[in-house]
Amino acid sequence: MEVPMTRRDLAIRSILTLAFLRTVGARDLWAAAVRPIGRHWLADLSDLSRDVKGGAIKQVEWQAKVEELFGKIDLPELLKFIRFDEMTRDLTYRAKGERSLSVRFPKVEGVPEDLPFGRQVFALKKGASVVPHGHDNMATAFLVLRGEFRGRHFERLADEPEHMILAPTLDKTFVPGGAATISDYKDNVHWFEALTDAAFIFNIHVMDVDAKSAKGSRRIYVDPAGQKLEGGKIRARRISPTEAYERYG
Ligand SMILES: [Fe+2]
Q1: Which listed residue, of 90, 120, 234, 249, carries a Cα 20 to 30 Å from 16's Cα?
Q2: How far does residue 101's CA lie from ligand 1's centre (Å)?
Q3: Residue list, CB under 5 A from ion ligand 1
Q4: Ligand 1 center from residue 131 Cα (angstroms)
């Protein structure tokens, strides 16, 4: 025999139904809001990164196309897409250097979940830096999400046992929406100093970008305050991560 529902039961049931509808509704709205960014932006980023890894496009082409894609992004939509507010809630900043926050993209129809690039968000307080470093066998892109940065790039002209010969190629202020890329072939060394508090960079990185290279993907820290050479070049000492963060973090 069916037990009749009391008024209290009915009230609880309607509260639960409402809560359920709100959750589902919010999820649907969010899914609808992020769909365009996933279908176009993430799909293009995935294709480009797969192409550069497979050798179908050169690393410098990847750089130009990713900068173009990053330049077109609707920043508020991207922040929704990566759930930026959730990701940065109750955040504590590091005294030196960047805090790396992991980024999970939502599932998007037609875009493989196993993406050919790593991604993260760097969070920095004013005066802290993504310290000067180059990379082996990596192509990397930055997009400023919040705050302002002084961003510097250097061409890695030559490697010496204890040094890198660098030529400065870029030194400018980046505001939200500003994008920059580096690779083994163009602007291998970068250095980003936060000029404001609550400064954030979205980063993607294609590891082992040249499958034929024997070099593993890694960061190489350098000190750009090195010996000045002719033509504005610098003989920058290779330094340990500890020294890099102590000096420049
Ligand atoms: Fe880097």
Answers
A1: 90
A2: 15
A3: 140
A4: 9
Q: How far is the CA of 234 from the centre of ligand 1 (A)?
A: 19
Residue type, 34: V
Whether 153 and 190 have beta carbons less than 8 Å apart is answered as yes
Ligand 1 centroid – CA 154 distance (Å):
12
Pairwise CA distance, residues 91 & 209, whole Å? 32
DSSP lists the bridge partners of residue 119 as 204
Q: What is the pTM of this model?
A: 0.85
pLDDT tens for the chain, residues 1 to 249: 455 667 666 666 666 655 554 554 555 565 565 567 767 889 899 999 999 999 999 999 999 999 999 998 999 999 999 999 999 999 999 999 999 999 988 887 777 789 999 999 999 999 999 999 999 999 999 999 999 999 999 999 999 999 999 999 999 999 999 999 999 999 999 999 999 999 999 999 999 999 888 899 999 999 999 899 999 999 999 999 999 999 999
CA nearest 191: which of 222, 234, 227? 222
Taking the centre of ligand 1 as the mean of its atom positions, its distance from the CA of residue 225, in whole angstroms, is: 18
